[in-house]
Amino acid sequence: ASLAEAIKNQYPSLNVSLSLSSTKTVAQFSDLLDTILGSAVASLSGTLFDGGSKEALVIQAHALSKERSLSYKQTMLQAFYDVNEALEREKNLEVYMRQLSHRTMLANAILERQSEKYLFGVVEYLSVLNAQQSLQELQQTALSKHLEHIKYRIALHRALGGGFIQHNIEKEWRNYDN
Q1: pTM (2 decimals)?
Q2: How far is residue 120's CA from residue 12's CA, in Å, rounded to a whole number?
């Protein structure tokens, strides 16, 4: 709109206005005509002589319009990048979590077998404890990856919805634990 206004103001315009007070002071029609023509010529010549500065205003308005357009495009590209990154991280994490879930099931099966072997006296209790420790480490990793998955989901929602409210996820999570 500002660019269109600058372009419109660049060209000469002729504004004729006649007020009742000016007709009272003018005694004859020729004086009235001279007054109208004089003000029209002054208005027209002022616009013609200011043509260079008004052209500069058009160029400035055009550059400002282009700058705002490029800024908007940059913002949109950054938003698309953020959404794409959040989706990629979440997809990769889901693949990792499926593999981790499979490994946890296997570790649980190993613990059961080691417990059975211990009951029959085939292995020592240390192998049962090692299997139990491996299972618990995988479960802890699964929990931390689940938290990471929640953080990625929050980042995705922020990328899609904008960052109007800034939150510290770590602080909120610690408050939740307490």
Answers
A1: 0.53
A2: 105
